[in-house]
Specification:
With 438 residues, the protein is of the alpha/beta class. The protein has 14 helices and 10 strands. The strands form 2 sheets. The chain has a 5-stranded mixed beta sheet with strand order 1-10-9-7-8, sandwiched between helices. It has a 5-stranded parallel beta sheet with strand order 3-2-4-5-6, with helices on both faces. α8 (224-237) packs across α13. The longest helix has 25 residues, at 147-171. Bound molecules: 6-O-phosphono-beta-D-fructofuranose (F6P). 6-O-phosphono-beta-D-fructofuranose is lined by residues 81-84, 141-143, 146, 149, 203-205, 416, 419. Pathway: Carbohydrate degradation; glycolysis; D-glyceraldehyde 3-phosphate and glycerone phosphate from D-glucose: step 2/4; Carbohydrate biosynthesis; gluconeogenesis. It is found in: Cytoplasm.
């Protein structure tokens, strides 16, 4: 039985019973492109076998360095953007919930992210927050020249040197970058920083299970052994192209069928606030992989039940362009009883004896029915719990599903040529050497 279930039972009025089997031939072709390396972007498929084929020595070094950082730092400042940020951030949030950092009895190193915007206030406030505290830096960039993280690196490295002196600062800088190329690798070679490798055959948005995600996750106290084991399970389970067997491929086929019927926007939804960033990670994965050649599903997200009181109106009655994919946790980390109250002024006495998650799940069921009845197709990816093992599985599930989705839609799922456009304009405006005559 598959570890992770895809519930597509509510799609009956949107997808005819013959449509999924009719996708099988296309899915087989997409699968061959992915597995045999005959598809576009074939140099970027190393993530496919990463859970079974990773550098075990480097993995152990990550765990050792994580312990070192935990013992000498109140904060780890993780500097990176896009795939060099989103995977680590979503995993730390997923595994630890919303209040770990605020809990005064928790003396763990706090993992804070920077270099993912050009906000001066954010950088100023973070510098103020770490003032008087011990900290280390994890600079994450494959190219080593991305503007946002490079600016932040300068600023936090300067603070590190001021606080500890140039020699000790070197021991507090951990760099995750390309094995051979790029400005950061050059700096690592010159300065002797501890460093980790972003494998050549793995693009940013597929890199969360490399040191890009693993070091910050390990420093946060996340179990990276379990994370890799879960991904390994997914790698084993999700390599059969048969749509009756492979839930990730079936998800890819179903969203492709819906896309062709005019459902051009997909909302990834959760019912747990610690999954907000999961949607942000998924948005980069899908948006950069599929949004090109003037086609692709637009990835968006909603956090429920919260957004039922904002986006809910549009989803229920706005333009019929939306499809929804819910990631529903079957057993949240904790459940809470709804207490007794002598008075029933809040009209909640009928819920006494139940738990909050019982109500959350009934809300989910009610929303699925309302949206389906209102003309919005809804699928659900059911995950058993919020463990590191499940997260590893879920990461691989979406990675392989989106790669197949890209090939189904006839695009290269592993490049992102459109990202360069804003950079060129920004460099011209900033008078960057080499750009002034463009
Ligand atoms: O790791 P780098 O080279 O700083 O790039 C950051 C991000 O920018 C992109 O190149 C484009 O968004 C992503 O693929 C990558 O995750």
């Amino acid at each position: 039985m598959a570890y992770l279930k895809l519930d597509s039972s509510k799609l009956n009025r949107f997808v005819n019973s013959n449509e999924v089997p009719e996708m099988q031939a296309l899915v087989n072709a997409a699968n061959r492109e992915l597995r045999d390396g005959t598809g576009a972007g074939n140099n970027y498929r190393e993530w496919l076998h990463l859970p079974t084929n990773y550098d075990h020595q480097e993995f152990e070094r990550i765990k050792k360095d994580a312990q070192q950082i935990q013992s000498d730092s109140d904060f780890l400042i993780v500097i990176g953007i896009g795939g060099s940020y989103l995977g680590a951030k979503m995993a730390v949030d997923f595994l630890h919930g919303d209040f770990d950092d605020l809990n005064s009895s928790n003396h763990q190193t706090r993992v804070i992210f920077a270099g993912n915007s050009l906000s001066s206030s954010y950088l100023h406030d973070l510098l103020e927050l770490i003032d008087g505290h011990d900290f280390s830096i994890n600079m994450v960039s494959k190219s080593g020249t991305t503007t946002e993280p490079s600016v932040a690196f300068r600023i936090f490295r300067k603070r590190l040197i001021k606080q500890y002196g140039a020699k000790e600062a070197v021991n507090r800088i951990y760099v995750t970058t390309d094995a051979k190329n790029g400005a950061l690798r050059q700096e690592v070679n010159e300065k002797g920083y501890e460093s980790f490798i972003i494998p050549n055959g793995i693009g940013g948005r597929y890199s969360v299970l490399t040191p890009v995600g693993l070091l910050p996750i390990a420093v946060s106290g996340g179990d990276i052994d379990q994370l890799m084991l879960g991904a390994h399970k997914a790698e084993d389970e999700l390599d059969n192209p048969d749509l009756t067997q492979n839930n990730a491929y079936r998800y890819a086929a179903l969203r492709n069928i819906l896309y062709r019927k005019g459902y051009g926007v997909e909302l990834l939804e959760n019912y747990e606030p610690n999954m907000r960033m999961f949607a942000e990670w998924w948005k980069q994965l899908t948006g950069e992989s599929e949004g090109k050649d003037h086609k692709g599903i637009f990835p968006a997200s909603a956090n429920l039940t919260t957004d039922l009181h904002s986006l809910g109106q549009y989803i229920q009655q706005g333009r019929r362009i939306l499809m929804e994919t819910v990631v529903k946790v079957n057993h949240p980390r904790h459940d809470v009883d709804i207490p007794h109250n002598d008075k029933n002024t809040d009209e909640l006495q009928y819920l006494e004896g139940h738990t909050v998650d019982y109500v959350n799940t009934r809300a989910y069921e009610g929303v699925v029915k309302a949206h389906t009845d209102g003309g919005v197709p809804v699928m659900t990816v059911n995950i058993p719990d919020e463990s590191a093992y499940t997260l590893g599985y879920l990461i691989y599930f979406f990675e392989v599903a989106i790669a197949i989705s890209g090939y189904l839609n006839g695009v290269n799922p592993f490049n992102q040529p459109g990202v360069e456009e804003y950079k060129t304009n920004m460099f011209i405006l900033l008078n960057k050497p080499g750009y002034t005559n463009k």
